[in-house]
UniProtKB/TrEMBL annotation:
UniProt source species: Timema genevievae (Walking stick)
Domain of life assignment: Eukaryota
InterPro entries referenced in this protein's UniProt entry, alphabetically: Acnase/IPM_dHydase_lsu_aba_1/3, Acoase/IPM_deHydtase_lsu_aba, Aconitase/3IPM_dehydase_swvl, Aconitase/IPM_isomerase, Aconitase_4Fe-4S_BS, Aconitase_4Fe-4S_dom, Aconitase_dom2, Aconitase_mito-like
Reaction equation(s) it catalyzes: citrate = D-threo-isocitrate
Domain annotation Aconitase/3-isopropylmalate dehydratase large subunit alpha/beta/alpha: ranges: 82-522
Keywords: Iron, Iron-sulfur, Lyase, Metal-binding, Mitochondrion, Transit peptide, Tricarboxylic acid cycle
Enzyme class, spelled out: lyase
Name the record gives this protein: Aconitate hydratase, mitochondrial
UniProt-annotated location(s): Mitochondrion
Coiled coil: none
Amino acid sequence: MLRVRLGPDHPPVDEDFRIRFPGSLLALEVQQRCFHLSPLGAAAAKVAMSNFDSSAYLPYEKLQSNLNVVKKRLNRPLTLSEKVLYSHIDEPTTQDIERGTSYLRLRPDRVAMQDATAQMAMLQFISSGLPKVAVPSTIHCDHLIEAQVRQTFQVGGEKDLARAKSLNEEVYNFLSTAGAKYGVGFWKPGSGIIHQILLENYIFPGLLMVGTDSHTVNGGGLGGVCIGVGGADAVDVMADIPWELKCPQVIGVKLTGSLKGWTSPKDIILKVADILTVKGGTGAIIEYFGPGVDSISCTGMATICNMGAEIGATTSLFPYNSRMRDYLNCTTRGYVAKEADKVAESLLTADAGAKYDKVIELDLDKLEPHINGPFTPDLAHPISKVGQTAKEKGWPLDIKVGDCTNSSYEDMGRCASIVKQAMKHGIKSKIPFNVTPGSEQIRATIERDGIAQTLRDFGGTVLANACGPCIGQWDRKDVKKGEKNTIVTSYNRNFTGRNDANPATHCFVTSPELVTALSLAGTLNFDPTKDKLKGSDVVFRQGIPAPFGDELPAQGFDPGEDTYDAPPADGSKVSVVVDPNSQRLQLLKPFDPWDGKDLTDLTILIKVKGKCTTDHISAAGPWLKYRGHLDNISNNMFIGAVNAENGEMNKVKNQVTGEWGPVPDVARSYKAKGIRWVAIGDENYGEGSSREHAALEPRHLGGRAIIVKSFARIHETNLKKQGMLPLTFNNPADYDKIQPSDRISLLGLKDLAPGKLVKFAARYSLKESVKVASKEASEYR
């Protein structure tokens, strides 16, 4: 065993190793992981984009050049979001640039895909016939691991991981071979949550990245513009096609004061969600600035950006600062920090006098710890008031489960500090307390530093390094479906049935610190900042002392087990096999092209009432196993949506037979008869995940249009990509005029253009042969 230093920009690493010199790149190949250093010699001017991208380089020179062109054209101060986006424009000399109006043609630096969405993305890429992806791309296996066998920290979720590898062998083999053939890096099951892996290894300040997960926005904590997209958008980027994005507005959040005491980074975004609501960020980037920014760690900034998806934002972003530099150095990317320092003012910071479309100001000195929910992530309560509110609303006070994720090293350390104080007085968790390490690197590091042992002594349990209950991958056994109960998590989403498929579960989202404190009390009616806590006696008379934890490990990170497979230089001979009889994977066939005619006499499949997220349209949980098989997963279409006609889920009237049945069954019946259909929706339709299955399934089962009061950004784009017309009511009140038995005609489609009204006509028709006078024609965008 030798102790070596990976150049002046890298912390020490203890590993068996050997030195090799591939071309102009000096690399240290360790037994568990391969770290690539900055290029030397002839390539001295080029710096690798990451430790895993030896032939892809930081694009700062090109970005700066593009930005100079754009700034000269616009002749005004730019926000940070604008600098990063506009510097990635494909044609900076001619591109129309108007916030909220024009469509930008962009060249992202990389693509990231999680295993559930990567299946459809790679199937689409295979259909393109291209031999290799055009930009650095990675697949991350984190979604298909179900939390079933709860283990102690000592075991480390190994049984759940082993079970997932066995159940999903066909899918993992497909993804790994497809990655090898087409030049995509593959992070194996157990690596960790995609967003944490990206932050630790790939995100850099000024990056533009698209990812097939709505929480790709996590990367804004390290200064990258990282945007969640559907698989078809990712394929465009991998196929070297400019990626289109409506030029976003910019909402500024000015932070003053500083974080202290029980207030955490999570409380910032919980409060912003309270202010903006779940749709207040739609069509905008949330840009944080002000003196309060420097009081937040890099991983804390990532936590804030991560939950920005819950307010509908295109993404969220922080300016480059010393906290990011420290994180880059600690994750063996000091060479990136050196280059970022050179463009910090010109590229990675907003110009003085830059104008925002809206500004929110938060004084961190006055911000109280928050807990949001149930059933929606924007229903905010200060911790001092949530107990009383729960009593008034009839929400269950007793907490059944506490779950922590967003698990950076700092999060784990702060939770451990609470636990240590409690255990001095013999107090342990009163409820099941689960922790999900964000990555294999975090797991290995907290094990080495004794944090894992502290949580183990507390009674904590660990799930595999994966998404688990946050996305519904939870085989929960402690309550029956329909049983009213409360859980408290540090996840981001808490839609009805999201975590455990139980619509009666009241899920509240908060910080890891509050999850830990509430686990000590076992009730929502507890404020750890001031309330008494009893053990055998009253041990904390005026609240629990505030948590604390190191921002970064003093000894550096332990990478843990090697979980990465790099693609070969030439993957042309790798075989990718999809069994035609598979129930998990299915090669795609092109949808029927539009015939150029208006869409007339469309049947209404369902008129959705109230919130309709992508979970309602295409449920996750047990359905994740069919994400690579379009026909099979289409059997979950709209099963969680509430039918406005009867107030029930997954029960609609077949307008041909008059019989009632499950939504997918009725849609299949229409498709078999050649009957085209539409769905009618409410506000912020398609909120939540980036999953394009919520657009693919309606198209596959005969849908032609979705008409709603308003859309969430990603879902509207996904519908367009799959040939579904996403239309919004010009007058939202017209939603109430539509009856489920109406027939819909969409007219003048040959003149369809962005922002142009589409003629709409509706008529009553109980049977296909019945002809009645049309209602007065209405117009919809």
